[in-house]
Amino acid sequence: MKRTLQDYKSDIKPVWCPGCGDYGVLAALQKALLALEIPPEDIITVSGIGCSGRFSHFLNSYSFHGTHGRALPTAVGAKTAKPDCTVLVAGGDGDGLGIGGGHISPVARKNVDLTYILIDNRVYGLTKGQASPTTPIGTKTKTSPLGVYESTLDVLPVFLAYDVSFIARSISTNMKQMTEIMQAAITHKGMSIVYIMSPCVTFPVLKSKEMKEMYQPLPDSYDPTNKMMAFEMAYKSGPMYSGIFYQISKPTLDEQLDSDFEKATRNNKSKPYSVEEVLNGFA
Asked: What is the pLDDT of residue 270?
C-alpha cells in the first residue's frame, strides 16, 4: 500500500500562530518521512516544552510530550527500549539550548542514533516573549526591558565542540533544503541535529525577510568531514550558511554496547557465558 502525507498527520491539528515557521518545519519532516517510507508505527517522537514542543501532538507516531528541557534523555530511553524504531526529538531554543542544553553533550558522546530537530526563533514565544540563549545582545524583551546584556550563544560551534556526528542548519522558508537535510539526518547512523531558524510572528526577534537575506547555501566545494572548515563556516556572520556542516561515521551507542556485551559474555575458552553467570561475577 502506497503511503501518503496524510499517513504522517495526526488527528490533532496544529494550533501555532498563523504564519509561524513551525508549520513549514512540520511539513518538511512529514515529507522526509514519506520519502523514506518509514512506517508511522516505527516512529517515536519526543518533544520538550514550548511552541516546538507541540510536534509530538501533530505527527502520527508514538509520541511523548516531556518536561522542560528533558526531551533528549527521554528519547535516549525510548531508543534503548526500542532500538529498531526511528526516534525523533523536537524542541526550541529555550527548551533545547537553555535548561536542556546540558543534555546535548552526553548524548553526543554516546552517539545515540536519534534525530534532534532544534527550532530557533531567538525568543521564548509560548511564554510571551522573554529572552532566550540566542536572543541578540541589545534586544528588548519582557525580561530585558533595557536590552539583553548576556552573550548570545553561538550554537553550531557548540555542537561541533561536542562532536555531534551530523550537524546541519536550515531555515523554515526553504522547504526543499529542510526536507533533504531531514532525510539525510534520519538515515545517518548516530546523533543528528537539524538546527532550523524559524521566525516567531508574535514576538518577531527573528524576522522572516531578514532571515531569508541572512542565509545562503554552503559552497558546492564544501567538505562536511572537515571539522576545522566547519568551525570556520559556522562562525561566519556575513553571509551565514545553511546546509550540512558536519557529518562523520563513528560507532553508535547500540554498536558499542553490543560489542561490550559480546566481550563480557565470552570466557577464555571462547564459550559464551550466560547473562546470569556474568551478573553472578559481580555478586
From this structure: 61
- CATH 3.40.50.970 domain locations along the chain: 5-249
Mean pLDDT of the chain: 91
The SS3 call for residue 223 is coil
166-171 sheet: strands from edge to edge = 62-65, 43-47, 86-92, 115-120, 192-197, 166-171, 240-247, 215-217
| Higher-confidence position of 182 and 238 | 182
Average pLDDT over residues 137-144: 89
CATH superfamily placement of domain 5-249: Thiamin diphosphate (ThDP)-binding fold, Pyr/PP domains (3.40.50.970)
> Kind of pairing, strands 166-171 and 240-247?
antiparallel
Distance CA 126, CA 136 (A): 18
Q: Give the DSSP letter string of 161-186.
A: HTT-SEEEEEETT-HHHHHHHHHHHH
